[in-house]
Amino acid sequence: MLFVSITIICCNAQNTKLIEKADNLKFIKAMPYNPQLSGDSIYWVVIIEGLDIVPYLIEKLDDTTSTEAIVPNFGGQYAVADIAYEAISTIIHEIPIKEIIETSDSSKQTGGYWFYWNYVNESISNRIKLKEFVNDWYLNNQNSLIWVEYKRSFRSSSDWKFDKNIHPLGGYYYLKE
Fold it and tell me: How does 92-103 read in b/e, with b if 16+ C-beta sit within 10 Å?
């Protein structure tokens, strides 16, 4: 009985930690600039959690709270939902969101950088649809995700707070074909 209690307490403490990290997305002031390891360390502390934090990030996909992080080449600020999506995409590569976006009115401009932004900025209902799509995709595919280790070094900014040139997660997941 004691073992079960300790396990429940540990799981609850882990869940609380992950919830807090996902909640801290609202404090991000700068997002990474690809292909450079840069941006706010809050983002990377979330990324380090890997698949464990993905369900908590999915919960944020409809959170339109504005952050201080500026969206390059597009203008405006990242919403918490946008940062959560970027974090999920850093942890799991190639989630096929085009499947849902191409069925919407925003499919007039397909592909490229604008694809996501046009869709989510069109309406809150699109953010909710995206959240549902990503959640369903993740639940259906989480057991088929394969780990790929990064075997290269990255550029990093002068304010990088982690090991130089090493991606904090050390790799990414993708769906086994």
Answer: beebebeebbee
50 sits in the region (left: phi over 0; alpha: psi -120 to 50; else beta) called left
Residues 6+ apart with CB under 8 A from 136: none
The residues facing 148 across adjacent strands are 172
CA 159 from centroid of its chain's CA atoms: 22
Instruction: State how far the Cα of 30 lies from the Cα of 77, in Å rounded to an integer.
Output: 10
pTM confidence score? 0.86
The tally of CA atoms less than 13 A away on the side-chain side of residue 141 is 19
Check residues 133 and 33 and name the one with the higher pLDDT: 133
Is a pLDDT exceeding 90 seen at residue 69?
yes
Amino acid at residue number 130? L
- Give the residue among 81, 55, 78 at the shortest CA–CA distance from 68: 78
Residue 44 corresponds to which amino acid? W
- Are the beta carbons of 51 and 173 closer than 8 angstroms? yes
Say how far apart CA 48 and CA 164 lie, in whole Å: 15
